[in-house]
Specification:
Number of domains: 3
Low-confidence stretches: 1-10
Shape: elongated
Largest sheet: 10 strands, mixed
Number of strands: 19
Strand content: 25-35%
Structural class: alpha+beta
Length: 370
């Protein structure tokens, strides 16, 4: 088979601006019945026209699409399809029932924060005791709920007990299939991502979100990449304090011994010297934070992102991520489980790195709850 001939015969992708115009006309739903998800049907056969123009396309759901291409032949005439396009159903709330009831459990990524047990999801907890994400397994069937916002203590859900409910108010654009949902809204006069959600067999990922809960802004967003020259400047600051720490540590090691007493848990003199080194290291970490703020004025999330990355590469300021020795068995089990989670979902951890959750003056990034 000639691949060039196949390429010429293959259907071109529908331009994004054409899709957007069609979706806005139909309120992001099937023009015939108002359901979702939808596909784009060529009223005039592609094989004859090779056209992806707005005029010959109509957004419809898969069920109505099968009514056109099913075994029984076309249920709708072209004239009827053009009429549906001119006067679509246009619901105000889009609904779909997610087939999740036979699942047993979900884990969550809320930004870069991982929750291994969704039935105990309590990373984001609001004043009335409700959570951003929740799972009900009380009757043996899994029921997923995700809050969209809280207005005057009234809970408004995006998903409630597996039922998707999309309020079309202020929606600028939307992409939906049963395993993903991305909505852009007009927020404060600007086009912004309201929600970017992925549903996998045992994992739900909330990559982006911007809304309010009881009047307080709630955001899940990716931090902007810091300027390379500023990162290099900050690296020089860290290296300066590394050298200073090494110099002072060597001076401490040269101090004469004062205690010849050995306790059952170690050398007291060595313990005192190590405590002095650790105290210097802590003060230098604080000094780096101060110098970083004075030099760049970056806020806390940027400090966490840039400085801690440099700390991870530092022989002095790096914190060990290995399982410490002589831990109780329960702690060993937790560390082992965390490492297994990181290995299983390594791609998600990498993609969601530097994604921050902000609510009520607090920021969350990189937490793991099991």
């Amino acid at each position: 088979m000639n691949s060039q001939n196949c390429a010429k015969k293959s259907r071109d992708n529908i331009p994004a601006d054409v899709k957007h115009k069609l979706l806005q006309k139909s309120n992001f739903s099937c023009s015939i019945c108002g359901k979702i998800p939808i596909v784009f049907h060529h009223i005039e056969e592609w094989s004859k026209t090779h056209s992806n123009d707005y005029e010959v396309l109509i957004p419809i759901c898969d069920l109505c699409h099968r009514g056109i291409h099913g075994e029984g032949g076309n249920l709708f005439s072209k004239q009827e399809l053009y009429e549906y396009k001119r006067s679509p159903k246009r619901p105000s709330i889009l609904r779909d029932r997610l087939p999740l009831d036979r699942k047993k459990q979900f884990s969550f990524f809320v930004g870069s924060n991982f929750i291994a047990n969704g039935s105990r999801a309590n990373l984001i907890r609001f004043s009335d005791g409700s959570h951003l994400t929740s799972i009900d397994l009380s009757d043996g069937n899994l029921k997923l709920s995700i809050l969209q916002k809280i207005v005057d203590s009234e809970k408004i859900y995006l998903i409630k007990e597996n039922e998707l409910m999309i309020d079309l108010t202020d929606i600028w654009d939307m992409r939906y299939s049963r395993n993903s949902l991305k909505i852009w809204k007009i927020i404060d006069g600007k086009k912004k991502i309201f929600i970017d959600l992925i549903i996998r067999p045992e994992l739900i990922v909330i990559k982006r979100m911007e809304t309010t809960f009881n009047g307080k802004p709630f955001r899940i967003y990716k931090l902007r990449a810091p300027h390379r020259k500023k990162v290099l400047k900050l690296k020089e600051i860290v290296q300066f304090y590394e050298a200073k720490h090494k110099e002072l540590s060597e001076q401490i090691d040269l101090l004469p011994r004062k205690h010849e007493i050995h306790h059952e848990w170690g050398d007291i003199d060595a313990f005192i010297k190590q405590t002095q080194k650790d105290l210097i290291k802590t003060r230098f970490e604080q000094a780096i934070l101060y110098d970083h703020h004075k030099e760049f004025g970056w806020e806390w999330p940027y400090y966490i992102r840039v400085v801690y990355k440099l700390f991870k590469d530092s022989d002095v300021f790096r914190s060990s991520h290995n399982i410490p020795e002589h831990l109780p068995k329960e702690y060993e089990r937790i560390y082992t489980h965390i490492n297994k989670i990181r290995e299983t979902y390594s791609k998600d951890f990498d993609e969601l790195e530097d994604t921050v959750v902000e609510y009520g003056g607090m920021s969350f990034s990189g937490n793991i709850m099991i």
